[in-house]
Design a protein that fits this description.
Distance between the termini: 109 Å
Number of helices: 14
Helix content: 25-40%
Strand content: 15-25%
Largest sheet: 13 strands, antiparallel
Number of strands: 26
Radius of gyration: 33 Å
Shape: elongated
Length: about 675
């Protein structure tokens, strides 16, 4: 309406005025139509914010700031927040989310290069992990080592970015955890190389709220699951992971630290490429700090569960020493009176005769009184050695069970939960299977084409079934040895002659530790204050004994002094954990297990008992190393343990010389025999 025309004007001028009027009309139309559209977009933003647990009033548009050169688009895209929250809530076995392409590619590459050029990682090892870690935490490196901080500007910026308000908003919107302090964020650099690992735990220490891992692994080629190093997520009480997260360049996994639920582990690294990460935890502000509860909805944290429960079967009475007088009451240091001539005759069927010699018994007795331990090898005589293990004396076998999927058919069960232990245990509940197996063996002797347990024919031509039968035979022979020797009254009196202690209760298990899978973390076994326990373990280290002596790939049994509880709020530690095997502080994570160099067996047949009182200034799980017992073929270890001592079997790496097999027995001791 504002445009007028004068027909006397030249045509070209009229055409320009006409075009101007049309453009003005179009602009007005666009403005009118776009107003409700703008209102709709604002309401949409409010719905997104409300759906993420925030009010519309708390929404602040994120303008351009210094972090846009650090983060990718995920941090500033509110619609992606909603999608990530849905993914977080639906994840199993517990809520978690993987943020991909989170950072600017060029920035993250420079940060990775700085870590490789300027940071030095040191080896750390406990019952729970084996890893290389940079000692300086990125959150405090500027005050501890200013020179180093000046050489890693991108890594320092990365730490600041994790504490920036845009990123804290992202974490709060996705996980629902809002009370995070930008000043209390642990941030450590860790490197996992071949053989390194981290066992199952739930991360509950102090006031930790969120756990995170940023992967700085090689971008090309992409990390493959065959290289190991994946993050394993476990269901509560499970012995095997339910979900795996493969390391991926420029990705970050985040989950809430939840007692008794957020169980996770780092799979052993099998490949040659290092697994480089930046990881840590978010904490609340000091005024809101409340340590994670020991129980959450009836669930205990992994640390509390280990300390408050037994790890193994129940004890049953051991009556072999009933009626035998107390050696201390007789004021004598020699308990040989406990052994009867018929006991010697019975034990000689199984035990190397040299260890039944009275003078040798006296020598072992003196050694146990001095150092509380002894190692006897070779312990069993050749006729009593399980036939399936004869070949191992020449180093011809590395495993009996590894690689067999249906090991349950052979009478073995995988036991857990994974935050305490994982190994195969021979199950006495498989009597029916074994009974059928014995019948089957008789049929095979008479008919070379007998039908196997599942009805398949030509059993002798099936190599897998042959190996399965071999593990059945091994379990049967060890069960016979367990019943006839270790649970016998004669053996209990033999233990009294060696240790001077009378046994009153016993539990025993047949265990199989597979390479690349199995372990038992540090625990006290429910031993009360003032009590003593005899740990008696007959070990069979499969494979070359010379390789076992030269290797440091786990499988050994270690004893450590129980640490003193320390109040801790959670500073830098090993990636996504603090050591839990009896420790109450993150300082435990920086302790390493000494090389297991004591108690090595010789390859000849001459029997020996080895003094194992060698100690190490540094131990694992926050306690000093008291004793380390090597894995040796046909070796019996005897250890006197009190309530202040924890024990564990170190995770057996995949490149170890062979698997570990043992018969582990624990004997409770009469209180009258304990000298205070």
């Amino acid at each position: 309406s504002d445009v007028t025309f004068d027909m006397r004007e030249p045509w070209d001028r009229r055409r320009c005025r006409l075009a101007y009027g049309a453009m003005a009309l179009m602009i007005q139309t666009i403005i009118v139509v776009s107003k409700p559209e703008r209102r709709r977009r604002v309401l949409t933003s409010e719905r997104i914010v409300g759906g993420l647990g925030s009010s519309a009033e708390s929404f602040r548009p994120m303008g351009k700031d210094r972090w846009r050169n650090v983060f990718g688009s995920t941090v500033y895209n509110w619609s992606s927040h909603q999608h990530l929250r849905s993914s977080y809530q639906a994840a199993r076995p517990f809520p978690h989310v993987v943020l991909r392409q989170l950072f600017n590619q060029d920035f993250l590459k420079e940060a990775r290069d700085e870590a490789i050029r300027h940071l030095v990682a040191q080896p750390k090892e406990t019952d729970l992990f084996k890893v290389f870690q940079v000692p300086e935490d990125l959150s405090c490196i500027s005050s501890v080592n200013k020179s180093l901080a000046s050489r890693i500007p991108c890594l320092m910026t990365l730490r600041e970015a994790l504490a920036s308000q845009p990123f804290l908003d992202l974490l709060g919107n996705v996980t629902g955890v809002k009370d995070l302090s930008p000043d209390r964020i642990d941030c450590s650099v860790n490197v996992y190389v071949k053989g390194n690992h981290l066992l199952c735990h739930d991360d509950v220490i102090g006031s930790r709220r969120l756990s995170y891992i940023i992967y700085l692994v090689d971008q090309h080629p992409r990390w493959n699951k065959s290289e190991g190093g994946r993050l394993e997520l476990y269901p509560p009480g499970g012995s095997s992971p339910e979900c795996y997260v493969t390391p991926e360049w420029n990705s970050m996994i985040v989950f809430k630290v939840d007692p008794g639920r957020s169980f996770h582990a780092v799979e052993e690294v099998f490949g040659d490429r290092p697994r480089l990460t930046v990881s840590g935890w978010y904490h609340p502000p000091p005024d809101l700090e409340v340590n994670n509860p020991k129980e959450s909805e009836g669930r205990k944290s992994s640390r509390e569960d280990i300390k408050s429960s037994e790890c193994g079967s129940k004890f049953r009475p051991a009556l072999g020493c009933e009626g035998v007088p107390n050696t201390h009451a007789e004021d004598t240091r020699s308990p040989l009176h406990a052994l009867k001539p018929e006991d010697i005759d019975y034990l000689s069927r199984y035990i190397n005769p040299s260890f039944l010699n009275h003078s040798h018994i006296q020598s072992i007795h003196s050694k146990i009184l001095k150092s509380s331990s002894a190692l006897l090898t070779p312990f069993l005589n050749t006729p009593s050695l399980p036939a399936s293990l004869w070949r191992n004396e020449r180093g011809e076998i590395r495993e009996e069970i590894s690689g067999i999927r249906e090991f349950r058919q052979a009478g073995w069960e995988e036991v857990g939960p994974a935050h305490k232990r994982r190994f195969l245990e021979y199950s006495a509940e498989s009597k029916d299977i074994l009974k059928e197996h014995r019948i089957e063996r008789r049929n095979i002797r008479t008919n070379r084409t007998a039908i196997d347990l599942e009805g398949r024919k030509n059993l002798n031509n099936n190599s897998t079934r042959k190996r399965c039968r071999g593990t059945m035979e091994l379990g049967l022979e060890l069960e016979r040895l367990q019943t006839e020797l270790f649970l016998s009254g004669a053996f209990q009196r033999y233990l009294m002659a060696l240790s001077g202690l009378r046994t009153c209760a016993v539990r025993s298990s047949i265990r199989y530790f597979r390479r690349g899978k199995d372990y038992c973390v540090a625990y006290g076994g429910g031993l009360g204050e003032g009590n003593l326990r005899l740990d008696v373990t007959l070990c069979f280290a499969l494979g070359s004994q010379s390789e076992w002596q030269a290797s440091n790939m786990g499988g050994f049994e270690a004893y450590i002094a129980a640490p003193t509880p320390i109040s801790h709020t959670g500073n830098s530690s090993i990636e996504d954990t603090g050591s839990q095997g009896g420790s109450d502080s993150d300082e435990a994570a920086t302790c390493r297990v000494g090389n297991p160099t004591t108690g090595n067996a010789r390859e000849d047949d001459e029997p020996q008992d080895t003094d194992q009182d060698q100690t190490d200034d540094q131990g694992c799980s926050g306690g000093s190393m008291v004793l380390c017992v090597d894995s040796v073929f046909n070796a019996l270890s005897i250890v006197v343990r009190d309530a202040g001592t924890l024990k564990f079997v170190k995770y057996l790496e995949r490149e170890a010389p062979g698997d570990r097999l043992d018969v582990a027995s624990e004997f409770d001791v009469h209180r009258d025999d304990i000298i205070t």
